Amino acid sequence: MGRDQRGSDPRDVMRASGQFMGLGLSFALAVLLFLGLGAWVDSKLGTAPFLLVLGAFIGAAAGFYSLYYHIVIEPRQREHDPE
Hints:
The protein is mainly alpha-helical. It is built from 2 helices and no strands. It has a domain at 27-80. It is 81% helix and 0% strand. Helix 1 (10-45) runs antiparallel to helix 2. The protein is elongated, with a radius of gyration of 19 Å.
C-alpha cells in the first residue's frame, strides 16, 4: 500500500533524494566558499576580478570532484570491498 507503481519503497526514495540534495548543497557551498575567498583576496590585492573568477573555477572543480567521488568512486569501492 505504501509503494508506487514501480514497487519502490517511499522511504528509499526519500533517503536517496536526501543524499542527492546533500551532494548538491556541498557542490554549491564549495563554489560559494572559493568564490568568496577569491573576492576577499582580490579586495586585499586589488586584482579584481581575476581571483574571484579563479576561485569560482576552483570551487566548481572541487565540487565536481566531490560529486564524482560520491557517485562513482565510493560505490565502486563498496562493491569491491564488502564488509
